[in-house]
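Think of the structure tokens as a kind of shorthand, similar to the way a musician reads notation: each symbol stands for something richer, in this case the local conformation of the backbone. In the example below we present two proteins back to back. Begin with the first one, reading the sequence and then the tokens, and try to describe in your own words what changes along the chain.
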Amino acid sequence: MASSTVSSPMSVLDRLGCYLVGLETSIFDESKRKLLFALVLLHGNIVVYAFAYWITQPVLPYLSKSLGADAVTFGYLQTVTNIMQILGGAAIGRYVDVYSPRLGMVVTTLGSAVAYLSLGFSFHTALLFLSRLPTCLMQCMQVAQSYVPKLLHTYGITEEHHTSVLMGRLALSYGLGMVPGSACGGFLAEIFGFNFVAFFAGVLSLLIAAVDAQFLADVDDHKSDKKKDSATAAVEAEKEIKKSEDVFGFKNYYKLLTTNKELRSSLLFTTIITAGFTMQQSSFSVAAIDTFDVSSSEMGMLMSTSAAVGVVVNTIGIKAPVQYFGEEKAIQYASTVILMMFLVYSQAKTKLHIVVLFFPLAVAAAFLYTVMTSLTSRTAPTEEQGSAIALRHATRSVVGIVIPPVAGYVLQNYGFPATGLSAASCIFVAVTSARLFGLVARPASPNPEKKTQ
């Protein structure tokens, strides 16, 4: 007798939830309705978070320049931000695994609000640096990337093929906030001033934090309605021990890195790739003003268009290449395309050249980010996925500490072409290492089932 009959008609919200999780509507049942509502709310949270973040991004380089910061100082500003993100990311990643993804989302959203409000009060370079301290808690996307797989696991949806689609859907929601955010930031700054934009982002973040605290479900809500078996009880007992012995997760991170070869390889490849992107992105923020005379509104439109391309990629451009090539080959091919684009980018002379190059770069970058995040999340068991994602974000932040000052120095002393060639060199090392040493490899068994005697 079939047990998956739908007890009530599917609503628009149900269908949207099925799309976000990659779940066929034909196998929808009443028990999954709570899951779908949680996913829709989580994705709405990411849209607002991304919008608040990106309305400040076209503003930050211009605000720092108006306060007297040069290219090197702006690089140090990015370095401080990344130091804070490493410190916060490690603690938040372990917090999600041991305590509560829902509370993790609330805390990170509140942290974002404090960071934006502090930025709004920055009327001196010293205050601008102080405004970077609360960014240690700006980890909403990291929390979401570990929250969703845990939520699916809670509801018994553990098929491997869902992972890439899930990460693509999260990136899609992020892009839906990024597109209008990056476009509006520059225009709002020209009308109301740079500081107003930061205050506006802070208020939005406070509002979404209140919504999260009131309505966002936790991963244990569904399990609490069921009788816990001995395995579940053992896991919870282990978590209680971890709460008291390893609150910040340093021992656990060390264990993951020393025992999980696939995770180490994935993180090494990601680090090298990220170095190339950071070299290009951090130097372009300054070069766009000094070399190409790009206004804040034009910068916003450029970011918005790039984000729109990312939305399209994450909507229709993930599933087919991954199915045809496999994740490993798809990652290597996307990296090769980025290498070629950076070589051409180094020879750009006009605004038109930059605009044309940004389209293929945006496509390859969006694809690579989503598939690499999917692969990384599957290198660890479900109860450690928050930590694995945190390590991935931490590697990006470590690169962000080292590379921006270097990029500023290269730009100031050797010119714009040198930054493009330096970025291309990083990608070349990553692609070559992947082919020679197999840095990109599919995890043999990311969520192994424990055998019982």
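Once you have a description of the first chain, move to the second and do the same.
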Amino acid sequence: MGPYLASYSSVPEFALSIWDWQENILLCSKSQPGVKVTSMSFNPMNWHQLCLSNENSLTVWNIERNDQEHHLKSKPVRLPAEDGSLMCKQDVFFSHPDIQDLYYGPVLPISAIAGLAGDEAETFRPKDDIQPSVHPTVHCWTATSDLYMGCEEGHFLAINVETLKASLLYYKPSQDAKERRRTKFRSLPLLSGDSLKKEEDKRRTEKPVLLAMAYHKDGLYAAGSDGIVHFYQIKGTHYQMDDCFDVSEPITSLVFSPDYNTLLVETDKGSVYVYKPSQNEEVIKLLDACNDHFLSADFLTPGNKYCVSVAISGEVHVWLLEDGTFISKLCLNTQATAMVCCPSSYSVAVGTKVGHVYFIDVTKVETPRVVHRVLLSNLPVRHLQ
């Protein structure tokens, strides 16, 4: 983002590194021994800020600068309990810090009661004091530099980045929700009154696990385990939700084109759909892959005419967005693990299982070609951005 490039390494370093990609200089790095990261994103409104998350935690990182020196500062977000209740901050040093009456003896540190000393005493916490928190699955930055987050438990959270406070968001249907749903469903059949009531009851009792989010000026598009792309309008701690279309398989990625007119929808089975929220158009199935060989897809920019997809086998495909026409294919003859399109040129970077990154020139969409290859690591390249 801006002049910064962020990378996160796994075994053995487990380090977040910030680079100046224009000068090829490592600016700073911070190690987190044993901490894996499954999702990483820059704040699009402030490129000195990142969010890193895994299945157990979510952390906001700030890039602080003093002249030519750069430093990383982490701010962990305190997540709610698995049932959605907010967890109070406890005194982890004393067993009963609020007790003033010393009739039964002095208030001792928890570690002293456990008979511990040294480094073990500094970090010890009784098992009963450890309360499991929600497990993040996806996060998304907002226009106000805050965060929305989905989790395995089905909760939908808003996070204030300044206070690091996570708030549960609640579904509040509008008065005309039923009528809007009748007119806004694209690929779902129209429902009878009884079916609508059953659907409303199901919506309240069954919470889909969100796996993908894409922020838009009109609201938030999100999807997940139920295979439905939802449109959220959020006010305070409540939200209204409309269903856009159903693809009948879990959705793992939502990506907007640079002009925010086209939404690219990817599923875990390998299908890719194109949807234009501002136009009353049917959803276009761009790629129908009925197996698990599909890896990723992205818009080819500048412009909004083409899309690129890559399969795990290393096959790179170029597609026409207007009607899903297949244009060309390039075989890398190696297993792919990650892909990203450059936002400023017709080029694609593909990471592989053996640690290489292939740079592909797609200036001529009919004949894509590999122009460079570099070995980054002996381990698989898991993320490119």
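Compare your description with these statements about the second chain. Residues 181-191 have pLDDT under 50 and may be disordered.
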